Amino acid sequence: MPYPHDPALETAPRTARQELASRCRAITDARWFALTVFGVILANAALLGIETYPGLVTEWRHWLRS
């Protein structure tokens, strides 16, 4: 979301907290971050689904419990 332009903010030095917030915002707004989170959620859903079938759990026990 674009922020309103305030010329006073450009002349004032940024604090460490503002710089950290800016870096965190850049990361969380990045497309690669959203895709990574989505992939982790899908992987978790698949593992939870596998664990609901007793036959698959016995076959994949080593990989699921590692």
Secondary structure tally, helices: 5
**H and E order:** HHHHH
For the secondary structure, the number of strands is: 0
Radius of gyration: 22 Å
- Assembly state (oligomeric): single chain
Largest sheet: none
- The share of residues in extended strands comes to under 5%
State the end-to-end distance.
Answer: 41 Å
Question: How would you portray this structure in words?
Answer:
By secondary structure, the chain is an all-alpha fold. 74% of the residues lie in helices and 0% in strands. It starts with 6 loop residues before the first helix and ends with a helix. The relative contact order is 0.06. The model has no long low-confidence stretch (mean pLDDT 85).
Give short descriptive properties of this protein:
single chain; 66 residues; mainly alpha; 0% strand; rod-shaped
Topology of this protein?
Blueprint: H1 7-11, H2 16-28, H3 31-50, H4 54-59, H5 61-65
In brief:
The chain is mostly helical and 66 residues long. The protein is built from 5 helices and no strands. The protein has helices spanning 7-11, 16-28, 31-50, 54-59, 61-65.
